[in-house]
Write a structure and sequence with these properties.
This is CBM6 domain-containing protein. InterPro entries: CBM6, Galactose-bd-like_sf. One of its GO terms (molecular function) is carbohydrate binding. This protein has two domains: about 90 residues, no CATH class; about 130 residues, Jelly Rolls (Sandwich). It is built from no helices and 18 strands. By secondary structure, it is mainly beta.
Length: about 230
Amino acid sequence: MAAYDSSRKIVNVVLGGDSGNNSVRVNGLGSFGSSVQVTVNAVPGSGRNTQVSAPTVLSSSTMNVSNGTVTVPVNGMTAEGAYQVVVTPAGGPTSSWQQVYEAENANVVNAQTRGSSAASNGSYVGGIDGSADMRSHSFVDFTVNVPTARSYTMAIRYANGTGSTSTHGLAYNGGAWSTVSYPATAGWGQFSTRNVTVSLRAGYNVIRLAKGSPNFSGGTGYAEIDSITLS
């Protein structure tokens, strides 16, 4: 299965169901120039009910385009695994990249989706309150798909009606925790934006914003999340 974003010149290919050393032939790349950046990601098979970590980068390289085509090796495949090939022009996407991810469409744990005309898509996530123990940990996991491995600006649209600064933990792809501070807004459901920098791999990444989470000491105060925007 493949998808092509013509405005940004990004090709995503998803494959699986075979084992051993294979290859993927990607056609129609004449407008990408003489070379392209190719990243291959993998997720192991885990059964229907077992969570897996973020994808592993198998390879990332620059490949020459011949007659609008590249043939990408995908080696060491397992029949149970899933694989992604990301192709962009060698200099990166040709236009400024930006993507919005709504909190209500993310994986929401021990929190609630609420409606508001002030929210960017009519809904947001509130009640991100639990931090005492693993049974009550509250967090939002965003699964994002980015074109290249680099640092991105992540704009968090949030509300904080406590009257003072609140905090969440931020981690991505199972990495180290940092703290995001949310200055008070005009009230609950009254949104502002906080910008942070995240270093992401090409393809899929998982970004967690948490009041409480395993291996995180816990946030302070309370904050609601409307969306994140990566650029």
